[in-house]
Amino acid sequence: MSFVAAEIDSQPDTWRQAAEFARTSAVIDALPRPGARVAIVGCGTSLFMAQSCAALRESADLGQTDAFPASEFPQSRAYDHVVALTRSGTTTEVIQLLMALPNGRPSTVITTAATLPAAQHADATVALDFADERSVVQTRFATSALALWRAHLGEDLGPVIEDALTELAGQLPDELAGREHVVFLGTGWTVGLANEAALKLRETSQTWTESYPAMEFRHGPISVVDGRSTVWIFGPTPARLADEITRTGALVVQADTDPMAHLVRAQRLAVMIATRKGLDPDAPRNLNRSIVLAGT
């Protein structure tokens, strides 16, 4: 079994640990207070988790919350608190952003160890050491960070964990692995999940993937969908959208499980397709576990 496959399988356990950790004073004190104006930043997978976290916090009426790629953070905006997600703790753009923050602006890093470089430039660190990974491909760290955030916002993750166990126990239909083109759609906080699912298939199995907010799919992208395509929807499906997609000949994938648990199925599909293509799912081409830019 590849490292990433084992890490995918371990997610119900790491989510449970994240939910328990979220109740500790170390996490409560480190994360933004209700009402604060917050920016959440990351790169790649961490950016997409930041998008989901931001949407969840704002929809919970806890304060304006925005998500940015670390390289595109608007330093001119007066956020009350900046939260950075980084598994490796060495990502160049994240460290540069933290170093550039003005004195007095609180910052928190969610990473895998308090000793990592990014943590040295933040006011507080939330270390998910139990969710660290050996694979280049991120799975359980990202979802555990999201699980921690959801628990911190007051959600009960018990049903979510049960849904993940159900997803892990199910068989992946061959029909899914045989499609040439996969489009992921989301609404609200699940837009970040759609972006992450597309990245997982793209980097792990070199599959042609796209992702959009669900209603934006009608504004052009639906034109390239046909019988070779899968359209995968996270969360509730907007009225009549599934019927419109079905008329294109595409396979429509939906689930009644929690969207974060549904992401587990997409992770498993990425590994399944990579294995069938003879690719190493732990080491996608042209990628490293940490993106450190030389000369910056």
Describe this structure in words.
This protein is of the alpha/beta class. The protein folds into two domains: 3-152, Glucose-6-phosphate isomerase like protein, domain 1 (Rossmann fold), CATH 3.40.50.10490; 158-276, Rossmann fold. Helix content is 41%, strand content 15%. The chain contains twelve helices and nine strands. The protein has helices at 3-9, 11-21, 25-30, 45-59, 92-100, 117-120, 140-152, 158-169, 174-177, 190-205, 241-246, 259-276, and strands at residues 38-42, 65-69, 81-85, 107-111, 124-127, 181-186, 208-213, 229-233, 251-253. Strands 2-1-3-4-5 form a five-stranded parallel sheet. The chain has a four-stranded parallel sheet with strand order 7-6-8-9. Strand 8 (229-233), helix 11 (241-246) and strand 9 form a beta-alpha-beta unit.
Break the fold down into its secondary structure elements and pairings.
Blueprint: H1 3-9, H2 11-21, H3 25-30, E1 38-42, H4 45-59, E2 65-69, E3 81-85, H5 92-100, E4 107-111, H6 117-120, E5 124-127, H7 140-152, H8 158-169, H9 174-177, E6 181-186, H10 190-205, E7 208-213, E8 229-233, H11 241-246, E9 251-253, H12 259-276
Parallel strand pairs: 1-2, 1-3, 3-4, 4-5, 6-7, 6-8, 8-9
List keywords for this structure.
five-stranded parallel β-sheet; 296 residues; alpha/beta; four-stranded parallel β-sheet; 2 domains; Rossmann fold; globular
